[in-house]
Amino acid sequence: MNQAGEIISISPRYAIPGGEVIIECKNFEFEYGSEYGAYFGGLKARLVGVSRKRVVAVVPEVFTGETEVYLESGSSQSNSLSIEVGEMLADDLHIVANPAVDPIDGSIILTRSGSRGQKLPVTLFKLTPEGELLEMPIDIMNPTGLAFNSKGELFVTNRASGDLVKIGRDGGYFTFSSNLGIATGVAFNSKGELFVGDRSGTIYKISDSGNAEIFATLEPSVAAYHLAFDKEDNLFVTAPGLSSFDNIWKIDRRGLVDVFYRGLGRPQGLAFDDEGNLYVAACLKGRRGIVKISAEDQEAELFVAGMNIVGLCFNKDSEMIVATSDKVYRLKI
Q1: Given a cut of 90, is residue 77 above it in pLDDT?
Q2: Which domains, from first to last, does the chain contain?
């Protein structure tokens, strides 16, 4: 008899180390105190829950990419199924919103933001396509939201001062707009119009000269506003609160606010893929990671398993860049 049984499915199929995946199985026989477990690429995982039909396992620090998963019990081994595990690109960071991909050279901009009001010697980094992490000589306290315009100019919010800083291609920078409250999320629509979220309750539209006007108002957030536009230039906003049933807000081009989706725990960074599906760093029904909300039917599913995920974006190769509070991973979707 094969005590390890048979693996039927693994959910989700994408993960970063530390994420919890559910292994659906049948006839997994085990006894507490005996030898049994789940293995990822040959490494034994920590188990969160075990039954004959289901094993909940924490993805260990395994070799990245396609990873074979199997169960063992006694001297028996189950069949194997594979999941995709993200490759770590950088660590020792402090990220509080989405990373940003440079549209000109494909570099990824990352932050070591620090707590509000904390002055750190280096707060912005550029991760080159070759994998080199470079310090950016830009003096911005608490950089939070990041966004590039079509010219490759970078805009960065400072949640300590309420400023928006513009960084040119030559590395020169200056304060582009001020008095934006607790400025966090930042995003451009398809027309190149710029929007900034003040987590205390305001979405600002910023003119080409840096003047700010109120575009919409929302509920305050305990952490940050995170912004992303869809192809129709509707603005989507997450504003994490203390509830486990938070909203994703949809704001149309006139500034009218509606609830797009309700039921996420602490939703943070968000991004759209080319097909219009929305991905949100959040908790769904007690499971943490990146939630995919289908463009077709607005059904939500956990798409990437991971802990402490705060943001994401897609690079020029349509790979998903996943940011936790201190690390960045690449997933081939």
Answers
A1: yes
A2: 6-85 (2.60.40.10), 87-331 (2.120.10.30)
